[in-house]
């Protein structure tokens, strides 16, 4: 394929823009990682800016793991993420599949109710009163149940179900399959890409859960990881008598940020193929 000068200039411009965007995304994470792995004396010597660590130390990570707060909050976050994502996927599937069936009585009314929630919400105070009235305050269920179903994810999954061949469902009904059997034995296995995509949306949301914990949880033993990281970041830096014997606040801050971000960063590349496919096939039609 022969490219003219205009195409070459456009390609070069695209590479430059994408390179700048990539640097904007990568450099802050590289800085955080480098500071967390660099001795505090070296950080001070370089004016607080370390892009590539010249000396490596894992003191900040050892101290974080050695405390009881970080492992406990990590366990809380993992529990909320795993259990919450499972509940999210189950309820979202049970809502999206019936809405994708045109023979459902009152389908347009139910669909309108789902769409309305994208534009309007009950607000923070009414939601808090509902959570309090149901006895969820100071429990991990307060971090799971109020966001059990996302209308946006319901519409994504509904659009994916609608693209499955109707003949498959008709054949299953002729063979005597019931709707629940069709859903879990036929529709769900064929919808793995959108399941992974929606599941990743929910999992990232639970992993980064911060505001809900601040609103509904006062018991510090139930704080998720993001709240503990925020407390570490808010700590004022105290003067140190011996920088070699103590882990300074700045390195602990950077280590805490990496500790909270690394799991999602590691998991995402393995799901990227399914994530992209699910977004394209399950996109909402205009």
From TrEMBL:
Keywords: Cell membrane, Membrane, Transmembrane, Transmembrane helix, Transport. The chain crosses the membrane at residues 12-33, 76-97, 109-129, 141-161, 182-204, 250-271. Residues 74-271 form the ABC transmembrane type-1 domain. One of its GO terms (cellular component) is plasma membrane. Its main location: membrane. It holds the Pfam family BPD_transp_1. InterPro entries: MetI-like, MetI-like_sf. One of its GO terms (biological process) is transmembrane transport. It comes from the Bacteria. It is found in: Cell membrane. It is a multi-pass membrane protein. The keyword Cell membrane applies. Belongs to the binding-protein-dependent transport system permease family. PANTHER family: ABC TRANSPORTER PERMEASE PROTEIN MG189-RELATED-RELATED (PTHR43744), POLYGALACTURONAN_RHAMNOGALACTURONAN TRANSPORT SYSTEM PERMEASE PROTEIN YTCP (PTHR43744:SF9). This is ABC transporter permease. It comes from Paenibacillus contaminans.
